[in-house]
């Protein structure tokens, strides 16, 4: 299967700390790849590097066959950060229509469909600054979907969503993947890991597993991904001790 993203020996230093210590991984096209790891492990930094907005010390990243950060990639990548990326003083619909207007051929009808796709139709006329945290991040997701990106990078998109909405969002992610979009979704919630096609587990800036959920479970000798993650961490600690 072709790779949408290839990362080789990536080293990133932020402030005075080495945050990514020579990471190598690849993201398969048309899959949902989960980036899992504890808070501060480097998930956002890796996503920023893939999107091309993170200064890297060394290593190589290819995205859709081009070096990360290439201007021609801008229209092909949708990136939803943890920070709000929609205008607070516009309604959800106004935001979606504004972002739709930035893409040739994307219409107001597409904007309305994106709002429906993230389950925000009842809040479409509401000012973004009055939305709940979960609604706010779904508004950002709707706007990121508008350009029909080939690669969607979603930083903790299910934070603050109730279980029903989380389930709907995961169904939506898989529908997008089935239609050919590649998704990279970060989370530190292990029960979401099992919903990914592939997992990249990161700890302290190093990849400690890169496989399907089933293979990660089998490799660690447990059915539970949280236990698998803990076992992988302990194995690493024993090897480096
Ligand atoms: N602007 C910055 N300057 C210096 N260090 C930073 C900066 N942003 C993040 N870091 C550090 O880089 C490390 C990795 O952070 P990153 O945000 O990539 O982790 P994460 O796995 O995404 O965490 P979370 O799950 O909490 O979002 C952390 O130690 C963090 O303190």
TrEMBL record:
GO molecular function ontology, one term from the record: ATP binding
According to the entry, every stretch annotated as the ABC transporter domain falls at 5-229
Protein keywords: ATP-binding, Nucleotide-binding
Q: Which CDD domains match?
A: ABC_DR_subfamily_A
Among InterPro entries, the record links this protein to: AAA+_ATPase, ABC_transporter-like_ATP-bd, P-loop_NTPase
Recorded hits in SUPFAM superfamilies, A to Z, give: P-loop containing nucleoside triphosphate hydrolases (SSF52540)
Q: Which PROSITE patterns match?
A: ABC_TRANSPORTER_2 (PS50893)
Q: Which domain of life is it from?
A: Bacteria
This one is known as ABC transporter ATP-binding protein
Instruction: Give the source species.
Output: Rugosimonospora acidiphila
């Amino acid at each position: 299967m072709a790779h949408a993203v290839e990362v080789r020996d990536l080293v990133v230093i932020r402030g005075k700390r080495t945050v990514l210590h020579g990471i190598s991984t690849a993201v398969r096209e048309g899959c949902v790849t989960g980036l899992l790891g504890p808070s501060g492990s480097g998930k956002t930094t890796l996503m920023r590097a893939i999107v091309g907005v993170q200064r890297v010390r060394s290593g190589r990243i290819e995205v859709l066959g081009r070096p990360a950060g290439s201007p021609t990639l801008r229209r092909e990548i949708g990136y939803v950060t943890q920070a709000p990326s929609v205008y607070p003083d516009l309604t959800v619909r106004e935001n979606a229509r504004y972002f739709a207007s930035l893409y040739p051929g994307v219409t107001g009808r597409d904007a309305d469909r994106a709002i429906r796709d993230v389950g925000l139709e009842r809040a479409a006329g509401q000012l973004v600054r009055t939305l709940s945290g979960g609604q706010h991040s779904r508004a950002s997701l709707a706007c990121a979907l508008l350009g029909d990106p080939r690669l969607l990078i979603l930083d903790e998109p299910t934070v603050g969503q109730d279980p029903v909405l989380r389930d709907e969002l995961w169904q939506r992610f898989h529908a997008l993947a089935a239609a050919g979009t590649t998704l990279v979704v970060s989370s530190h919630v292990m029960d979401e890991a099992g919903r990914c096609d592939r997992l990249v587990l990161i700890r302290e800036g190093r990849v400690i597993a890169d496989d399907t959920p089933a293979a990660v479970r089998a490799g660690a000798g447990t059915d539970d991904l949280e236990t698998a993650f803990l076992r992988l961490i302990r194995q690493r600690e024993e090897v480096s001790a």
